[in-house]
């Protein structure tokens, strides 16, 4: 009798967890479809393990594509050892849904050597997940002022150059205040990514005017 009740509680717990996960996914989809219909210029979402510990389902990406979104920007790695546990599911499902897929690395750049090490880690993670340059861009997310403006700019350029040399299309993910504020952490005039405005082939990302800038202007919605 005791074993029966334990099995019953086990299956009930699994059922409830599945029900909750399904409900959260539906709410997440609705939160994107509503603004997409109201403002069709919103064209991308930024996803990571924070949104769903198992990755977002194919149905989510199919739904937001029908709602007008064109791309997904997916977190892959961080520093020199962290791998987002949902990247494989998110990249595969976003690609299967027909969205443009971009991958980003959260940078913690402290030296040229560190920039090269983080590039190597990002590249390894992209290869392991089967990310192809034809999917979209390899993006460096620079949000931390880990060095002086001149040094951080140099480290960022090193990261971008290393990724470009590996055959990836590249871009910078940062906010306008980080390179164009009163006390910027990046020197925009010396960054290797210089073209302002949206890229014709990748509407979700622009050079310099990157994802975070688009978010600030209200033309994109992130899920980070």
From TrEMBL:
A GO MF annotation of the entry reads: lysozyme activity
Q: Which UniProt keywords apply?
A: Signal
Question: Pfam families annotated for this entry?
Answer: Glyco_hydro_25
UniProt GO BP: carbohydrate catabolic process; cell wall macromolecule catabolic process; peptidoglycan catabolic process
Q: Which PANTHER family match?
A: LYSOZYME
Family recorded in the similarity comment: Belongs to the glycosyl hydrolase 25 family.
What name does the UniProt record give this protein? Lysozyme
Specify the species.
Sporolactobacillus inulinus CASD
